[in-house]
Design goal:
about 140 residues, mainly alpha, 3-stranded parallel beta sheet, 3 strands
């Protein structure tokens, strides 16, 4: 998807070059998960969600590498943990983790909008949660 849309992101960045790096210039948002944090892995490792955590680690690496590559074009890239969203997927973990999620879809959506509109150049390549706080990789 990013490859297909990148020419448009690049065009937006060059058309808005008077602005600092921000979403108005070009921003790729990759959805990650707190379960991808190697530093915070337990208790997530105890829940035996290895394949999910590993796939989200790959998303984080792609974000970091893309942010480095895209910087020359004025395009940012961030990884975002939207929170443990109350969805059907979250409900599947209830037996193992004792909960179906912490935030509603609407709350998670609002967090994403705040991150997208508030992200600045120094956030590119970071692993973010609401309020632009960072998670450790």
């Amino acid at each position: 998807v990013t490859t297909s849309f990148y020419p448009l992101l690049k065009l937006s960045a060059s058309s808005n070059s008077s602005l600092p790096m921000c979403a108005a210039r070009g921003l790729v948002v990759n959805f990650s998960s707190i379960g991808a944090s190697i530093e915070l892995a337990p208790p997530f490792g105890e829940a035996k969600v290895y394949s999910y955590a590993i796939s989200k680690c790959a998303v984080n690496m792609m974000t970091k590498l893309s942010a480095h590559e895209f910087k020359a074009d004025g395009v940012m890239c961030v990884a975002v943990h939207p929170g443990w969203v109350k969805t059907d997927m979250g409900a599947l973990a209830e037996e193992e983790l004792g909960s179906t999620g912490d935030v509603t879809v609407d709350e998670a959506s609002q967090h994403m909008i705040e991150i997208m509109t508030g992200a600045k150049e120094e956030n590119s390549g970071q692993y973010l949660i609401k309020d632009l706080a960072t998670l450790p990789y």
